[in-house]
Amino acid sequence: MPKLDLTKVPVKTGSIYPEPYASQMTGRSSLRLADAGGLTQFGANLVILAPGAKSSLRHWHLHEDEFVMITKGACTLVQDAGETPMTVGDCAAFPAGSTDGHHFINHTDAEVRFLVVGTKARHEVATYSDIDMVVRLDAGTARFTHKDGTDWSGPK
Description:
Elements: E1 11-13, E2 28-32, H1 33-36, E3 42-49, E4 59-61, E5 66-72, E6 74-79, E7 82-87, E8 91-94, E9 103-105, E10 112-119, E11 123-128, E12 133-138, E13 141-145
Antiparallel strand pairs: 1-2, 2-3, 3-10, 4-11, 5-8, 5-10, 6-7, 6-9, 11-12, 12-13
């Protein structure tokens, strides 16, 4: 595939999260670069965070490795042990099965961009560290449940 024209890659906004969590993703968008290039074995997304935005709810993946590299601006990585400042060139790696939930927050007044590369497991489970929610992804279909496996019925 030739060089990707980023001006022609659709910008994905919003979230698959149920409310009240979907609205917490305001200011987050991404370019699905691997999809735009026709790749199927791994994902590569350029995530864009407006000032005050966060990348996701704090989460960890059961089957998928995840790698992040900051490409523009500065943000904060939040994990179980606390916060870590991240700037251009800084990288973070999250091995599949590690239960240390993570997300990124833009506490600055400038846009932040980072590249996220991850495996594309056909069946995946992501657990949200700070709330009673799990998502099971099966061939692209998402099913949200509580951590006890019961169907999602909203925050408890």
